[in-house]
What does this fold into?
Amino acid sequence: MSRAALRWREVLAAAALLSGLGLGTLAYVVRYHYPTLPARWVFFWALIVAVAGLSLTPLALLHRRFTGHLPPRPTLAREGLLAGAFVALWAWLQMDRLASPGVVAALGAAFVLVELAGLLWGGRRTSGR
It folds into this structure.
């Protein structure tokens, strides 16, 4: 068994766990709770977890395609959580009808800049090891 196959299993297991937890919680909150303040917080938390889990596999595939290897665990986790935070913030803006295409594009650009900064400065700190 190769090391790459073991890493793919880790990515798929984490994706399945996070997606199942997030989507299950989303279904429960939407089905059984009124939209009170605590239920909204649980909804947004579950949305972040679900999107992070659903985005892990495509993010790992993109890294594999463009760099030739799988990313480190912290990088993949950060990118998944950024995707989840983007979708949750988009949903929150949509509640008050503030999510215009310009606002969402600016929000997306800000998240891309945060990710690029994390890739650039994060790689410099760990390259000396």
Notes: The radius of gyration is 17 Å. The helical segments are 3-32, 37-67, 73-95, 101-126. DSSP finds four helices and no strands in the chain.
